[in-house]
Design brief:
Helix content is 41%, strand content 26%. With 123 residues, it is of the alpha+beta class. It is built from 4 helices and 4 strands; from the N terminus they run αβαββααβ. Helix 2 packs across helix 3 and helix 2 packs antiparallel against helix 4. It starts with 6 loop residues before the first helix and ends in a 6-residue tail after the last strand. InterPro entries: Dimeric_a/b-barrel, DUF1330. This is DUF1330 domain-containing protein. It comes from Micromonospora sediminicola.
Length: 123
């Protein structure tokens, strides 16, 4: 199951407007006992890396039973994280200090979706 982004996906991510703000949707399914490890990662993200790269958590919450979903599509937690640009996100994930703490995230998760979003324009 997918947990961490890979190089080719980051390259495609940056090919879109790398200077425009982006909100990343995080859908998380924890491994057994993984919530504590993710909370450790989350604390480092909020306290060190988001401020360093201009990001902010817009929303973080536990998943409740899905109203509309196929079997296996329910998630344990959802986060929305805003970055000032795709380039800022890319710089963060390339940061050697950040890479050290991602082991807590990787160990915590059974499966994840990391979906960049683009705001709808008003017509």
């Amino acid at each position: 199951m997918a947990v961490d982004p890979v190089g080719r996906d980051l390259k495609a991510f940056l090919a879109a407007d790398s200077d425009a703000p982006v909100v990343m949707l995080n859908l998380l399914r924890f491994a057994e006992g993984g919530r504590e490890s993710y909370e450790r990662y989350g604390a480092a993200l909020r306290e060190t890396f988001l401020p360093r790269y201009g990001g902010e958590v817009l929303y973080a919450g536990d998943g409740a039973p899905a109203l509309v979903a196929e079997e296996g599509q329910a998630w344990d937690a959802v986060l929305l994280v805003r970055y000032p640009s795709r380039a800022a996100f890319s710089r963060m994930v390339a940061d050697p200090e950040y890479q050290e703490v991602t082991r807590w995230r990787t160990a915590a998760l059974e499966e994840a979706v990391l979906q960049p979003t683009v705001p709808w324009t008003k017509e």
